[in-house]
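Troubleshooting entry. Yesterday's outputs looked truncated, so today I'm pasting the complete records for two proteins to confirm everything comes through intact. If either block looks cut off, that's the bug. Protein one:
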Amino acid sequence: MKLDFSIPQRQSKLGISILFLDSVQRLLRASIGLFVVFAFNFQKYSGKLIWMGFIILALSILGTFIRYWYFTFQIDFSSKELIIQKGFLKKSRISIQLHKIQQINLNQSLLHKIFQLYEVKVDTAGSGKKEVEIKAISSAVANQLKEVIEVLNEQETSVVTETIQTETIPSKSIKIDFLTLVKTGITSKYVETFGWLFLVLNTLWENGKQIHLEDKIDTNAVERYFDYNSVLLSVITGFIFIFILIITINLVRTIVRYFNFEISKTKHSLLLSFGLFTTRKTIINPIKVQVFKISQNYFQEKLDINNIRIEQASSDENNKQKRKDRIEIPGCSEAVKKQLFDFIYNKSISNEAVYFPSIRKFWVRSIFMVLLPILSVLLGNYFTDFLIWNKLLILVLLYGIIGVFSCWRLYKNYKLMVTSQFIMVQSGFWDIDTAIIEPYKIQAITTSQLFWQKRMNIGSVYLHTAGGHISFTTGFYSEITTLCNQWLYQVETSTKKWM
């Protein structure tokens, strides 16, 4: 049954239970301090605690009724606007032009799945938060709403009805199977997970110090274990344990988040659907894609896996929110990656000119990352003798070899690639990342050259888009200025839409 979105629509009646539970948890969070005080003095405040529970229940019921009855949404087809009206004492009317809608997310939590409902979140590029949040509507209404918005963004209002009938049938569907997710989970995000694990362990250690955990540990037994003969074995065992833990965390997180990942393609957009416990459906409009990022490491290359991240326009200055709104597509084969790229850009990359950084990038990084730390440690040990010299020299030698190798690999993997249609920057040590943008979507170009770089013809360029920026540093400044002039000309003469 086709809904007439030109008249105000309410949320699903089954959604009243979701609105009620949402109101309860909001009030509980707001009054958690009072609950804690009353709970520690239960005998004294038991009566007040019961009355407080009744008050929260009554306010939740009242709030649920207001949020349901006084909340409506509709589409003004003449002005192409999504209109939200809400509020009882303080009424508000939100109008969003459909062409400014950046992203539509259809989310389904466990509670939503029980009632077969969806939460719809509509994001625009002109706001740092979700403009519209429709808490609970049926699957049919949610899908029809996103389809109408999608079509109105591309077609004239007069042909909306017949267009919907022809556009809603996906022309192609791509599924990322469970085995691919397993491969992705065991080969991705080692450094990120290690950093997160380090913070967690550090927090637990700090909390352990507060309860004097060290008094409960037999330090003599620990010292006997870490004697000279068992240090190497202990270090190897520790590394193996941490590596297994990181892989396990990555595997579980990848499967839970991206379970049953499916990409459905229509004429004007991509619909991504994924999630085990919380299902999320996200619509991508190719015109609004600002940065297309491809990531791949050695193992993933052998397994034919690419991780893709899509950045759309955002005015949000909150980096945490930006990361949350990024669209990630894990475990894409080369064929799937090509299909996605062809759909978004409708053109291929060919005849690229490659620009490499100056060799000074390697030497400067080696000085700051390898030489200076080694000199600092050796100088500190000379005055304090905190470590035996033969052991220290072995550690310094190992650090030097690894450090120089890392700096060289970072230098060799770093390059700028330019075609008439695309700008690409490749970088990375283990995970090789390639960020791709189109020149006409550039909003600003920044070049920089430090005073000591002028004589050596070295400089940097930063390309800013509505979805983020890419940079190429320590390149040859004469090449950079020539490219900047070329890109500025493309920006000024282009008539293409990017929003």
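Protein two, checking that the full record survives here as well:
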Amino acid sequence: MEQVLGSEWKITPAGGATGNSFFATRDGQELFLKRNSSPFLAVLSAEGIVPKLIWTKRMENGDVITAQHRLVGRELKPSDMKSSNVAELLQKIHHSKELLNMLKRLGKQPLTPNKILDEIQQAVAFEKIKQPEIIQAVELLETQLPDVQCKDQVVCHCDVNHNNWLLTDTNQLFLIDWDGAMIADPAIDIGILLYWYIEEADWKDWLSSYGLELNDQLLKRIYWYVLLQAITSYLLYYAKNNVQEMHNWIEHINVIMSKMNKN
């Protein structure tokens, strides 16, 4: 990174799983740098969904470095997630034709419920998982598959936890960390956000801010994707042999299935 900015800049890792993100500071200036970010970043910046992209530089080795302003602000707290500005920004993302067209140009194919379920079934079979709750959960997903088909195919962030929302000191809201973005049913994002952050009694009001009416079909899609995410989390910790987290997710799965069977 020093060869991009010069030795007068102080470069420090910004964390993250890939190790490709950095902070750069000099004389009060602060930048957020990323190596080999997707061209998708430029569209996200133009749409005002992530902090403004300042420049992009291609290195001799083929790496592409992007720079954005490092903004003063904070991550959202779990209690902030029920606010209408979160619903409005997510609605803007899901309805952006520019974002959708860019992901399509990058070769992303729509992720249908059938394709997702097939991947889960293959993973459970490959790992030879016999846990009764997991088998039951996968069977429930399959049973409800005809009820969760959706014509809406939008850009989904797929990791809308509160740590990925940035609120600046000037009250600008951004959704960052787009590495897992997909084209899919918007219920993937909506469901995870509602289930983990908002009381079910308040779902109708939150969805009203988003621009949707809560009905039986949407409710089924929400719980279907919440259960899917819970199974995926269980599989993640199964692969790590983390028995405590596996147990925690089994408890979550039981609660989710109970709610699905009531609706």
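Both blocks look complete. Sanity check on protein two: The CA atoms of residues 4 and 129 lie 48 Å apart.
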